[in-house]
C-alpha cells in the first residue's frame, strides 16, 4: 500500500458537491455532522474547498450546467481522491434518467476526467446517514 | 369581496374574453387572444386585485398557450387566464414583468423552454437552461419529443458564462461579490453576483439552472399514478406537499373525495414535515450568525420528528405516502401515543428555543431591521409562505383554501408586519408551535375507516391544486387528454417566487447581512455558497469563510456593544 493510500484512510476530509439533487441527500449529509451521528468523532470533516478534500461526496444527477463544475472540482482535488456517489441519482440518475438536462451519472462525468478514479456508491433515496457512514467505512477499508 | 362580487368584477372584462369556464365554484378559467393578455393581466393584478401565482406555457397542437394563474385568497378562488398565441412560427406576447416583477423569472423560463418571445421584457437572458444549450432548441415543444434533445452534443467543457460575466465585471473595476455555485456546508447550487459599494450592496443578480432536471417534461412520460413519486423529488424537504398539491389537482379533475382518515393522515405527515423543515432552518440561520449551538440543538431536536416519519412512512425524508384518492400507508393506531409523547417533547424544546431567541438582546440587535421586505414589495414579487407572512401578507393555503383536515382543526395563521429577518424567525418559531397543535388534534381526532378509495380514470380536462409547503404555496397545474399520462404538468415551488424578492430585500443592505438575508427566505439552497468578494481597488479577495466571519464578527461587535453600554432587553 502506498503511503498516500495509507494516509487517506484515517480521518478523511470530505467536500460536498451537489450536482442537481433534490436536497434530500444533502440534508442527510449535513445531518451526519449533528449530534445524533456526529462523524467528526471519526475525524471525518466537511471542508470548504476541494483542494483540502480527501473525498468528494457527490449528490444529484449531474445537470448540463453542473457537469463542467463537477469536472473542475474533481480536477482541483489532490489525488488520490475517493468519489462517493451518494443516493440513487448520483449512482445512476434514478428517476430523472430521461431528463433532457441530465448528462450524468456522476461516475461517467468523473471518468471523463480521470479513467482511474476511485468511485464508491451509496444507493438509497435518500440513503440513511447510517448507510453513508457504512459506505465510507467499507470504501476506505477496501482501498 | 365575496365570490359573487368577484364574479361581477370579472364580468367587466367579458367582451375581451373568448371563453369562460368554471369547473368548480372556486376555479375559473378565462381564455383570451394574446393581444388582450397584457391589459387583462393588468386588470386582474392591479384592479381586482388578485395575487399572482405563476404562468404556464403550453404547446398545444395548433397554437401556444400562456396560462396566467392568479389566486383570490379571501374566497380561495383560483383564476386562470389563458392567452392563446396563434402564430406558431414566431410566437410572441407582451410581457407583464414591467408591472409585475414576480413574473420576470417565469417569462424567461417560458422563453427558454418553449421559445415564446416576451415583448418589452426588462431582462430576457437565459434562466433555466445550461449556458451551452443550443439556441433554438426548445425542450417543452412537442416536436422535441424523445426528451434527450438531438443535435446537442452534451459538450459542457466551455467556461460558464456566469463566472465569466463576474470576471468581466471585475475587469470593469466594479466591485462584485460572487456567491456560488458551490458552497461548503449545505444543499444546492446557485450563483449570485452582488455589486457592492464599499460595504453596501447596490445590485444583485442571480443565475439558476444548476439544478434543472426537467421534471415537467419527465412527468409527461409517466402515468398519473407514478407522478407523485417524481414530484416528491422536486425537493426532498417538501416531499409531502408537492405530491399533495398534485393529487389534489387530480382529485378535483376526477371528482374523487378521499376518505376522512386519509385527510387526517395527510395532515399529520405534512405538519411533521413543516416542523422538521423549520427546525432545519433555525439551525442554519444560527450557524450563519455565529450561534453554532443553535445549529446543533435544532438539528438534534429534529431527529425525533424524522424517526416518527420513518415509523409512519418507512423513510426519513421521502414518504411516498400520498396517492390519488387517499394514502398508501396508514398511521397505525398503536403509534398514536408515541406521536403524542414525542411532540410533547418537541414542544418543550421549542419553548426553550423561543425563549432563547426572544430574550436574547444580541439577536434583536443583529436581526431587527435587517433585510426588510416591505409589504408592497412582497405583493409585487408575489412571495408566499413565511416570507409573505413576516411582511404582513397573511396568506396561508391551509386556511384560505382548506385541504386535508385543516378545516376541522383549531389553529391560527402567524403573521408579523415588520418584514425583517427577525420577523421571519419569529413567524417560523411560532408556526412550529401551531404545527404541534395541529398534529395533536389530528392524532386525537383520527377517524376510523379506510385510507384509500378507488380511482378508475382521469377524465380529460385541466385542474390546479395547491398546498402550503414549509416555504410557502406549492402550485401544480395538470392537463389531461383522457389518457393515462398528463399532457402538461406545471410545478411551481415556493422558492421560485421567494428567491427573486432578494432584489428588494438585499439592495441597500450590508455585506455582512447578506448571508442571513438570503437565508431568511429559507430558499431551497442556503445561498451562502462559496462566496468570494472581489474588491478591485485593493485586489483583496475574500472567500466564503471570510464572509461568514464578517457576519459573525458583526454579531460579536453587537454583543460587545451591548455589554459596554449596559443595554438591557427593555431598551430594545
General description of the model:
The complex is a heterodimer of chains A (143) and B (572). Chain A is an alpha/beta fold and 143 residues long. Chain A has a single domain (3-127), classed as Rossmann fold, CATH 3.40.50. Chain A is built from six helices and five strands. The model of chain A has no long low-confidence stretch (mean pLDDT 89). Chain B is α+β, with helices and mostly antiparallel strands and 572 residues long. In chain B, helix 8 (260-288) runs antiparallel to helix 9 (292-313) and helix 18 (511-520) packs across helix 19 (544-565). Chain B has helices at 3-11, 37-47, 104-114, 161-171, 215-219, 227-231, 241-254, 260-288, 292-313, 336-358, 361-367, 375-380, 385-389, 397-400, 421-445, 495-498, 502-506, 511-520, 544-565, and strands at 17-24, 27-33, 51-59, 64-72, 77-85, 92-94, 117-119, 176-179, 191-197, 200-207, 322-323, 326-327, 461-469, 472-480, 486-492, 531-535, 540-542. Helices cover 40% and strands 18% of the residues of chain B. The chains are: A alpha/beta (143), B alpha+beta (572). Chains A and B meet through strand 1, helix 2 and helix 3 of A and helix 5 and helix 9 of B.
Offer a few descriptive terms.
heterodimer; A: 143 residues; alpha/beta; Rossmann fold; 5-stranded parallel beta sheet; 6 helices; globular; B: 572 residues; alpha+beta; Beta Polymerase, domain 2; 5-stranded mixed beta sheet; 5-stranded antiparallel beta sheet; 19 helices; disordered C terminus
How confident is the prediction overall: mean pLDDT of chain B? 83
- Measured between the Cα atoms of the first and last residue of chain A, the distance is 9 Å
From the spread of the alpha carbons, the general shape of chain B counts as globular
Characterize the main sheet of chain A.
Answer: 5 strands, parallel
CATH H-level superfamily title of the domain at 3-158 in chain B: NADH:ubiquinone oxidoreductase Nqo5 subunit
- CATH classification class of chain A: Alpha Beta
Proportion of strand residues of chain A: 15-25%
Widest beta sheet: strand line-up of chain A: 2-1-3-4-5
Shape of chain A: globular
Structural class of chain B: alpha+beta
Mean pLDDT of chain A: 89
- Whole-number tally of structural domains of chain A: 1
